[in-house]
Design a protein that fits this description.
mainly beta; 12-stranded antiparallel β-sheet; 10-stranded antiparallel β-sheet; globular
Length: 303
């Protein structure tokens, strides 16, 4: 039996096969411009090899209707970990503890320097913070579902003061991803509630057990029963660079409500051939329907 999650101790890196710290969020500049952002650092431990790291940074520029991303890699000697986490990917910085975090990253045309502060306790998914990837192994998984953000976004050399909301996922365990895939949804509603929905597919591409979590206004999380929530694609988008056809736009049913998710920009695909090695779609979406809000969607394992 796996030991329970213990925070803030488990904010720190572990010695398991796979781990990641994953931020997505929505920023508004003082002039009214809106952006989505993604910053993730992956950690991998394989036998006696040095610890390996990969990082992805992406900006969705809604005003320009464009998406930009970049990737970096590093070995264990280049990444420092301390109480909490303090990760340095050749100048991309990610650090924090107990929901008080700092992110710094840059690429041609865009950069961020952001401070984040959790407005709710961490949500432990599946009731205990442990989910199963089936034969691939089990994963610890918690989220900080509503982080207040303030800082600077640099847009084509121009520094802009920004505020907004972010979401942070932390997963780790002795599992290896690769076979199958998943659709993941993080939804921050304007009524101060959040939803996490995770639809896993097995190596044959068939649906596996889905996971869903509802976080109420007080921060209390409720694990949703499989069969009580679902998703339906409303359209598709085909990548001109990889030729992959992804779902695009979704009808979500969960917690007795129907929500419509619409990408702010259709082309939000990353193809990180120099790091993790497989393409995926990770995008900023708006939420309408029974309630309004914002979210992020991740699509992995499409061909």
């Amino acid at each position: 039996m796996l030991p329970p999650v213990s925070l803030p101790r488990d904010d720190a890196p572990h010695n398991d096969l796979t781990e990641w710290w994953y931020y997505t969020g929505h920023l508004t500049a003082s002039g009214g411009q809106t952006y989505g952002f993604e910053l993730v650092i992956f950690q991998g431990n394989r036998q006696a090899d040095p610890t390996a790291y990969a990082a992805h940074f992406a900006i969705t520029d809604n005003g320009r209707n464009q998406f930009r991303w970049s990737e970096r890699t590093a070995s264990g000697s280049q990444v420092h970990a301390s109480p909490g986490f303090d990760l340095n990917m050749n100048g991309w910085l990610m650090g924090g503890s107990n929901g008080h975090d700092r992110l710094t990253a840059d690429m041609p045309d865009y950069g961020i320097a952001l401070d984040l502060s959790a407005l709710k306790p961490a949500a432990l998914h599946n009731g205990n913070g442990i989910i199963s990837f089936g034969p691939a192994g089990d994963s610890y998984y918690y989220s900080r579902t509503r982080l207040a953000v303030a800082g600077t976004l640099t847009d084509h050399g121009r520094p802009l003061s920004v505020t907004g909301l972010a979401w942070m996922d932390h997963q780790w365990g002795n599992f290896i991803t690769g076979a199958g895939g998943w659709d993941w949804f993080s939804i921050q509603l304007d009524d101060d509630t959040e939803l996490m929905l995770f639809f896993l597919r097995d190596a044959a591409g068939q649906p596996a057990v889905p996971y869903g979590t509802l976080v109420d206004t007080t921060g209390h999380e409720t694990a949703l029963r499989p069969g009580s929530f679902g998703q339906q694609a409303r359209g598709s988008w085909t990548s001109p660079s990889t030729g992959i056809a992804y779902p695009s736009g979704w009808t979500i049913t969960a917690a007795g409500q129907t929500l419509i998710l619409t990408p702010t920009v259709k082309a939000q695909e990353l193809n990180p051939t120099q790091s993790t090695g497989f393409p995926y779609w990770e995008g900023d979406v708006t939420v309408t329907g029974a309630k309004t809000g914002q979210g992020y969607v991740e699509l992995v394992g499409y061909h």
